[in-house]
Amino acid sequence: MTNRQTLMAASILITTAFHGLVLGVASLVPLYGLSPPPSKVSLPFHVRFRDEASVPPVANENKKGNGTSLATRPDKIEDLLKREADVIKALDSALNKTAEMPNLAGRLAQESLPSERPLDPDADTLARVDAKVIEIAQENARVGIDIPRRLVAPSQGRIVGENEFPVLRGPSDAPEGAVALGDMPTVSLLDMPVHPRGESADGQSPPIEDTAPLEPANVSLPSLPQVDVIARAPVMENIRGERPFEFMDDMVDIGLETYLPPGEKDGFFRVRIVPKKGGNIEVLPQDVTFVIDASNSIVQRKLDATVKGARDAVAQLKSNDRFNIVVFRDTPAFFQPGLVPASQDNLGDALKFLTNVQSHGETDVFSALRPVIQTPPREGVSGLVVVVTDGRPTIGLRDTRALINDLTNENVQGNEIIAYGGGNTVNRYLLDLLAYRNRGESRVESAIDGIGRDLPAFVAQFSEPILANLRADYIDIDAAGVFPKQLPDFRKQRVVTVYGRFNPKKDGGFVMRLSGMALSKKKEIIFRSDLRKSATGDADLARNWAFQKVYFLIGEICRLGEKPELINEMRQLCKKYGIRTSYDE
User: Domains of the chain by range and CATH?
Assistant: First the structure.
């Protein structure tokens, strides 16, 4: 208790002493404030009044103006403004005077300006300008134009109308006495075996991972009427000789089938395009790369059968083809640094490269395929990548979806990928989706002993390309319902097939244009028909369309993820058309 009182007393004494010290020092601290106002403000000027009579006259009132003096002072502001306006009018009148230049015409005739660029353009520039002018004139004024069609380049955004050739065309292009062309006849392909991808003998669809690729069908459709062929032949020959553009309308057979399910408002159609038997179609060279998995996951017996099939496939290459071989495990081993001609010497060396290949090491599919798909094929040539693997990577990029998406995104060169697997341990999802997303197909041979025969037969279906970088355009049809979205390269042994939907009440005419490259030439196929007069298909046509759309949706799920809207749409299609997938509940 005594300690607390002592502390309290000491605190009071210290506080009192401190405040006393502050009050004592405060009088010595200067304070700053406002100074008092000055007693007298000094003016910077002064004013003095004078009589008007004592003011001397002003000689020039506007020394700093426009140089024009005023004779008298204005009494009002209006007078001053009126005088300024008079000055402006006087200046304007000076500008209106005509300047005289003696012998102007003669002086101009003697002078010549040097041209920075030659007035005569080169032939390529002149051809492009000429074609553009003709296209504009044809679009804006179709009457009275007499321009041969072989002088006009194909229009990029327009499909020709009825009775026109596949470019802009004037009314007087046909030779005198030629027979007018009618619609291309509709033909039936009912004799061609229907092949819904993966359909079993009992009419049920197996799971997508068990599906087989479309088989080629050697079918000859009825040829065009002779009168049409005769009318087109002279013009076609002239075009082939004069333009780097070629039309293939007379070299293929095209069939259109439709089917309208009972009780539904929308129907289905299928278009098949096959090279005409005996047609003089030039076969293109191609650039082929074989990518062979030789890791531990491929048992030696299966690898021996795979190598035998690959050797036979390499031996089938044409002399104007280019090729390379990649054998991969954890790292890829290349036969050559790049694509080489399929000469006898190179083919012999390749067969030696494929001798005594041993199974060992890890599996890195991505590192083996990435440099291959980044290699561009020659211009106007089909680029084909044949990958033989079980699709089960053990190192590197191992996620199946990421592997498919990354390889597809990097395949900017347009290489077509076909995938092949053998045995019962194949990741069919990877092979199927990798091929589908890159315009190719996949095949799995479950019997190991059959790989040696089946692999070269599968590759042989892609050995005779006739049109690379194939693209389809449609008119009078909603292209959103057409599948597949990306078409493979057009080949002699294969059928180009597309499926779509149409409304029979409003959709009648149908026009399809296929275009692609053949070396330095752009080629085009135009097909025009009437959906209401086409051959009639059956329910399999609708189911095949649904199967193609399911494949498209699965590809979108792989690309974008399992979005509910994609999953629901796919399941509705599968339930309606009896299609089984790995997403079945």
Answer: 125-173 (no CATH), 286-463 (3.40.50.410)
